Amino acid sequence: MRDRFAEGRQRIVSSVVEQPEDSTDLDLSGPYSLSTQLLGQYVTLDFDHWKSVRQIRSLISRYAEDRTRRRPLNIMMQAEPGSGKSHLVKSLARSLEQQNASAVDYNMASLQTLEDLLQPLDAVRNLKVQDKLPILFIDEFDSDPDRFPLLLPLLWDGELNVAHRNLKLGKLVVILAGSGKTISAAMAIAKTMQAGTAGEGKLVDLLSRINGGELEIPPLDLVTQDRDRRADKVCLTISLLEARFGTAIEVVPRSLLSFVARSSFRYGVRSLAHLVDFIDPFTNGAEGKELTTKQLRLPLTSVSALRASSLAYHVFSEDGPAAIVDCWKDASREEIKVRIREESKDEDDLPF
Question: 1, 104, 105: which is closest to 49 by C-alpha?
Fold first, then answer.
């Protein structure tokens, strides 16, 4: 699988990112299909990330099937804002359909009073009544360190006292997501396992209850000798196009994929989704199979157009907006089509 992923990444990078001059229409249906094999709409060709996600999924599956486990299974997730954390959790839950898993998400940054926790916890209790395995995703749990003590009983025995109610949740999966450097530093210090290096008491106490491992979503601009997340940006864009226009879409302009791969986006997947929303819907007789360059309508024709648009909040470059506009002009210099899904046959073409 490592070799297959490497081959898929190289195929995308060489044909979309590097844009060879002698390019004709391209077919990336194979690499894209490969990126969907683990979790469907959550796509990746990064082998290390794929392996980590697969391990977490296997761990949750074993936990669900182990009737002797009563305490929550707690997982730590680290990722940048907008990196697709919630999407990953929902995709994990869908992939664990046989274990009756279902996701509930809550953002701790929105917590005003302890009573605000009642809604997600009641949702968890309702799932348990339906004999489902709740996966409670708590995003930005590190937004306020003073709230760490609230989570300690939940992580230990699945129980919480809220508004004079004793909520006993029991067996469930809790995924805590954070992006602060404090978490990574505290984890590193605690893992030295030396006396006097425990760090912040409540945070280390919380980390000590992480019994299901850790999962990191690598930055979308990560490029090393063995990894190249630019290929994942291409696959993510294709997945977002399918989510908006349907899986019948088969062909897209290379210009769009090339611009995405070569640009930096402030809020990751959320910013990519914002970009896709600029595209015009299908209005011709193409039946939604081929996305054309005319439909793109991206505000990248000039610096003034970019600055006047909401896209200015999502795309950035160290060299300023002119470099972003130039990147688009370079990406769209040729009308190259990219096949993202195997060509479907009309009923008239079927051999029977």
Answer: 1
Number of H helices, E strands in the chain: 13, 12
Q: Catalogue the E-assigned strands of the chain.
A: 26-27, 73-78, 101-107, 133-139, 159-162, 165-168, 173-178, 214-216, 251-253, 264-265, 315-316, 337-339
- To 10 degrees, what angle do helices 47-65 and 85-95 make? 50
**Helix (H) or strand (E) segment spanning residue 7:** helix 2-12
Cα separation of 86 and 160, whole Å? Answer: 23
Whole-model pTM: value is 0.88
Residue 152: Cβ-neighbour burial (10 angstroms; 0-12, 13-18, 19+): middle
Q: Phi then psi for 47, rounded to 5 degrees? A: -60, -40
Q: Please report, in tens digits, the pLDDT of each residue of the chain (352 residues total).
A: 999 999 999 999 999 988 777 667 899 999 999 999 989 889 999 999 999 999 999 999 999 999 999 999 999 999 888 889 999 999 999 999 999 999 999 999 988 888 888 899 999 999 999 999 999 999 999 888 888 888 999 999 998 888 778 888 989 999 999 876 667 777 777 777 766 555 557 888 899 999 999 999 999 999 998 899 999 999 999 999 999 998 889 999 999 999 999 999 999 999 999 999 999 988 655 567 899 988 999 999 999 999 999 999 999 999 999 999 999 999 998 889 999 998 866 555 544 3
Give the whole-angstrom CA distance, residue 283 versus residue 295: 9
- 184/203 Cα distance (integer angstroms): 11
Euclidean distance between CA atoms 230 and 227, whole angstroms: 9
Alpha-carbon separation of residue 221 from 94, 162, 213 (angstroms): 27, 41, 25
* Gap between the Cα atoms of 259 and 224, Å rounded: 20
Please name the residues in contact with 225: beta carbons below 8 A apart, sequence gap of 6 or more. Answer: none
Find where tokens 């990112």 sit.
17
Q: What is the dihedral of CA 170, 171, 172, 177, to 10 degrees?
A: 70
